Amino acid sequence: EDRLLTCLSLFLQCSRHYLKAKMYQKHLVANEFAALICVQLKAVQIHLAASLQEQQNAAPRDEAFSIDPIADWRCAQLLRAAPGGPPATGPRALAKDPDPPGEPPPPVGAEP
Question: What tens digit of pLDDT does each residue of 38-53 get?
Answer without folding.
Answer: 999 999 999 999 999 8
